[in-house]
Predict the structure.
Amino acid sequence: MKKILFVLANLMILTACGDKSKKDYLVTIKTSYGDMKVLLYEETPLHKENFIELAKSGRYDSTIFHRVIENFMIQGGNIYEKEGTREPENARIPAEIIEGFYHTRGALAAARQPDNVNPEKLSSSCQFYIIDGNSWEVMSTDQRLLNQKLTELLEDPEYSELLAKFQELAKNRDSNGMNNLALENKALVEEKFGIDLTIDPKTGNNEAYKELGGYHYLDNDYTVFGKVVDGLDVIDKIAAVKKGGPNQSRPIEPIYLTMEVEEVKKKEITKLYGYEYPSKK
């Protein structure tokens, strides 16, 4: 009888372990602008384990999104600023830059110091950013030439009304509005100057960027270790807040965040969010 109970006990342990492997973590980043659900990649285990540990322990709670740039990204999670300390150099995480993980809209990536002081591309032990990014229309437009030709066009009195719109946006420091207005007049510029302003941004995966947009300039240079699977609109809301400070990227009103971690069956994650897990070799 004791032998049977021993076998059953071990079977229960093995079953529990098996169930564990069939689940994954979902992290909810809660803010006053709404919640974002984040999935972390198995292919970047060092970053995944670190992020989960910080989220579970509550160290991320009451940190802020301290750097916000519309059409680029929102950055936060500086636990050392919250705790009044500095990041130990030996706490940084080795890069896990994986081919095929792109900076598409919603991508979760690790912040880091620049190459000149960090040639190994070591990631911050806590700071992360989430891509807001540009649309494919912006990515595939030669914006420098568009702006140059628009400037020439607006010297013509025939386009005084359009000039006034740009001047009003400039007065309000609405750079996003100016960019949108420029794009709205792309066809006009092409017709007037007989040019084609469409370019190939040469991303690692044009199809992914066509669908989601993003910021491909960072590809293969920073570790992407997850993505937002629900709450993409929250990124837009945070990116659009009023900012100030020395670099004009810190929200004037602090945007605090808290995190919750839950384990969910992988099948359920695939069903809810369409994420396909890599097959085990």
In short: The longest helix spans residues 2-21. Confidence is low (pLDDT under 50) at residues 1-18.
